[in-house]
Amino acid sequence: MRIAAIAVFGSTLAACGGGGGSGSNNNLASSSASVPAPATPTPPPVGAAPSGDPSVSVTPETTAPAGPTTAPISGTTSDPMPLPVAPIGEYAVYGVVTDVRIQNTGSASQVNTPFTFGQVFAMGDLPQGYSLIGRLEDGTKVPLQLDVKAYHADGSVRHAIVSAILPGLAASQVRTMALMKTNAPIIHGTLSPKVLLSNGFSSSVHAVINGVEYKASADDMIKSGWKYNTWLSGAVANEWQVSAPLRSADGSEHPHLTARFAIRWYDSIKKARVDVTVENNWAYELNPSNITYDAKVVVRGQEVYVKPAMTHLHHSRWRKLFWWGDEPQVHVRHNSAYLIASRAVPNYDQSVVTPEATLNNLMAKWTGSAIEPMGVGLANPYMPSTGGRNDIGLLPGWAATYLLTMDPRAKAVTLGTADLAGSWSSHYRDRNTDRPVSLVDFPYMTILGTKGDTKNPVTKQYEAFPVCPSTSCTTPNKHDTSHQPAFAYLPYLVTGDYYYLEELQFWASYNVFQSNPGWRKNVQGLVADDQVRGQAWSMRTLAEAAYITPDSDRLKEHFQRILASNLDWYNTKYTNNPDANFFGVLDMNSAVIYNSKRGVAPWQDDFFTSAIGHAVELGFEQARGLLIWKAKSPAMRMTDPGICWIDGALYAMSIRDSATSPFYTSMSQAADASETATFRSLTCGSAEMASFLKLKVGEMTGYSSTVIGYPSNMQPALAYAVDVRLSNGAAAWNKFMARSVKPNYGTGPQFAIVPR
Questions:
Q1: What is each CA distance from 748 to 97, 388, 462, 712, 744, in whole angstroms?
Q2: CB atoms within 10 A of CB 518
Q3: Contact at 8 Å (CB) between 153 and 133?
Q4: CA 247 to CA 257: how far, in whole Å?
Q5: What is the pTM of this model?
Q6: What confidence tens digit (pLDDT) does each residue in 69-126 have?
Q7: Secondary element (H or E) of residue 254
C-alpha cells in the first residue's frame, strides 16, 4: 500500500489557498531573492534519489545515505537506529533527520492523539524533494504532514510545521518518534473551512461596551464566504484564519476591535483547536484609546472564557486557545541538541543542570493577573527598569531553560509569556495589508517626532499615527528597545503558530519605526541612534524575523532589506573603515555616554557583539566581517597585557580624555583612564589584588557569581569570538573559563552560551 506521507509546501499554499476558491492570502507574497522559495518539487521516480541530494543514487533495496552530521537523537552524536532504506510500498524511507518525544501529560491513556509542532532543519538535512515520515521506537511508522514555511539558500527546508495523529498513548507515557526522510510525494489538502460547518463547529467573541454587545462569529464568517487564509493544509491537519471587526446587533462595526480566529481542524478525528485573538491595534484608525468591555468567548455554544471589565490597552492584543472536542494532553519534546546544532538558536551549554527548584519557581510565579490578558507573564512590565533581569539576553532565562530541558513547565511559561507579549502598546497593524506595518509602505511613520517629520516627499502624505491622548491611553506596561525580551522567536520555531510569527514581526517592525524618520534614514530603518543595548536587541529581533519569516510572506523581504541596510551602515562605519577605533566598540554619540562622555559600557557592547554573532550563525554572511571587528573588544579585554583580565568585564571603560578628544590607541591608555592607580599597581590576578577588591583569587569583578553579572553578559560575546576564529579568541575564552568564581546557570541560563 502506498505510504501516507503527507506534506505541503508554503509556496504552493500561496497559489492554491488550501483548495478554497474563496480563500485569500493577505500574508503571502513573493519570496526574498536572498533566500529563495523554490517551486514545489516534482517527486522523483519511484526508487530514485530525491533531487537535491547527489549523495543518493539507489533503489529501495540498497543502502541509504549517511545520516545528518549534527546530533540526530537527543544527547547523542550519531544515529543508533539502522539506516538502510526501508521500502514501504512504492516509496523509500531514508535516514533519521532528528527526533521528538511525545509525552502524555495526563493521567489516562489516550487514543488518536493529534499533535502539531514546528521544526527547524539544518541546511541540507531535508533537501528539496524529500518529505518526512515518523518512526516510533518500536518500528511503527506514523504518517506526517509537512507544511514547509521557509527554505535555506540551497533549497533545503529551513522551517516546517509537522502534524500527526498518534494511535495510542498510555498514561504518562513518552514515545520517541524519529523524523525520517522519504521520497514520498507531496500531497495537498482539498478541504475548505466549510467542512467545519458540516460538523457543527461554532465559535464567537463577544464584547459588551456601555451596555451594547458587539460580536464576531467565526462560523458566520465561514457561512457567508468571508475571505480566509490557509496556514496548514493536508490529510492530517488544516488550519484556516478568519477575522472581522466586532459588530453590534444593528450591524455597526466597532472601529478598533477585531476578532481573529485560527481554526486547526483534524478531520479524521473531528477535533479542532480554536485560537482566538482580539486586537485593538489598527495603525491609522482615528481616535485610538484603551477600551473597557466585558469579554466573552464561546465555543460550541459553551462560554469558555469570561472576563468582566477588561481594559484592552491601545495598540495591543490578547490571545486564548480552546479545543472543540476533548483537549489532547500531550507535550512535544524537541531534540535540544538538534535545535542548537541547526544554528537557529545560540549554542547554549547543554551541560547545564537545571534543578527542580528552578522549574517549580517558574510555575510558582505563573499565576494571578500577570497571566491574564494585558498582563505580561514573567516579563518586567516596565521594560526601562535598570539592573540585571531574567528577561534580558538573546533568549530570556525562562526560554533558555525550556530550550535546554524541554520541560513542560518551562514550555508553559515560555509560550504563555509569548502570548502575553501582545499586551504592550507596540502593535500596529496596517488595514491595507492586514499585516504589521512596514517601512516599505510607510517609510516616514514614527513614534518619536512631530507630524512634520512624517511627510512623505513622494506621496505628499503625512504618515504620523493618529494621536492617542494620554487621558485615554495610559498603560501599566512600558516598552522600549533597550530592555526588550526575545518573546516570540523560539515559540514560533517550536510550534509554528501564526500568532507567534506575527508577534516577532510586530516587535521587529516597532523597533525600526519607533525612531525619528530622519535619524533612521526613513525606509532604511537604521537603529544606530539608539542606546547600544537597544541596537543589540533590535538587531537580534530583526535578524530572527528576516531568518524565520515564511518565504511567501511579503514582510520577509522587508526585514531582510532593513537588516542589510543596518549591516551596510555598521560595515561602512567600522568593519571597512581603517580609521575605526582601536577597541572594537561602538562609538557613536549614543554609545560614548559614560564617565562624562569619555567612555562606553563594555557590557552593553557585549550585548551587541552577541547579537551580531547570532546573525552570523543564522547565515547572514554580511554580518561576519562586523563580528570579526566587534569580537576583538571582549577578546582584547581578556588578553591584552595593557589591562588586567580580572577587570575585563568592567562597568564603564574610558576611551578618550574628554568629550571632544580623539580616541585612545592602546588598551593600557583605556585602563589607566578607567581604573584607579592603586588597582593598576597590583599584580594581575594576585592575592593582593583579590584582597584589595574583596574578592577571591581569580574572581572577576562585576558580580561574577551571578547569572546576570557583567562577566555573564560577556560570555556570549567571547563564545562568538571563538566561533569566528578570532586570533586571540580561544585564548580569551580559556582564560575566561579558568576564572575561579562562576555562576550556577541552572538558575538562569540566558548567558550560558559556549563556542560551537
A1: 30, 12, 46, 11, 8
A2: 12
A3: no
A4: 9
A5: 0.89
A6: 333 333 333 333 333 334 445 688 889 999 999 999 999 999 999 999 999 999 999 9
A7: strand 253-266
